[in-house]
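ESCALATION

Customer reports they have been waiting on this structure for their group meeting. Please prioritize. Original submission:
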Amino acid sequence: MKITKIKILKNSVSVYFDDEKLELDKEVYPNFYLYVGKEVSKKEYKKIKEYNDISSLLKYALKIRSKAIYSEYQMREKLYAKGGNKEEIDQVINKLKGYDLIDDNAFIEDHIEYYNSLNYGKNKILNKLSEKGIFEERLEKINFPISIERKKAKAIFDKLDKKHSKYNFVRKKQHIYNSYISLGFSKEIANEMVPTLKDDNNKEEKKKLEKDFEKIKTRYSNKYQKKELKQKILQALLQKGYRMNDILPIIERMK
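Update from on-call: job pushed to the front of the queue and completed.
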């Protein structure tokens, strides 16, 4: 293969052969003695191209790494998307590890610290790490002290209590329990926290009961009448978690 033309551009160098063109990174070009008229063997051509491809992948990896932290899996996916093959990517990853720019142990520690600051439970943290390419065998080795899980759960209790304040006591307990589960806490922790919820004072609970009673009555009045209407309202209020002794006096007021 004979070089027929060399064109130096702003960020790259175009090396032309008889029937093809090779785009080299401007930093790669000086590493090879290339000039118009030079005969390049297929082996040498392959070496130049591989060197250039790895250099381009490394430059890209350093660029995106300067803006964010990646797990090894995430970085490999980025490099595959840029067209790298396994051998090239292995070399780039090894270079990044040598620069301490890829370290899954540090990646895990940093993310656990961050997710703990958001008061996420261990299950949500494990899911987040899994989504970022940390595999099961490594996730299984992570320790989540129960004392830390309890501390996080207690830290968000008042917020959850306020968030679900519109519900009656029974429904509020269920919503708070579900919130703990969705935030990644274990059933054990959720079951520990719900009993700490104080029962609403009788006055507030009756206000909510009256409000729900009027809503349900309005909804069912066009469809049911008299005894059947009362029965439907009773069932609906019981399903919402109100106590029978509190419901009956209101039902009895109906004509």
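Sent to customer with the following note: The chain is about 60% helix and 5% strand.
Escalation resolved.
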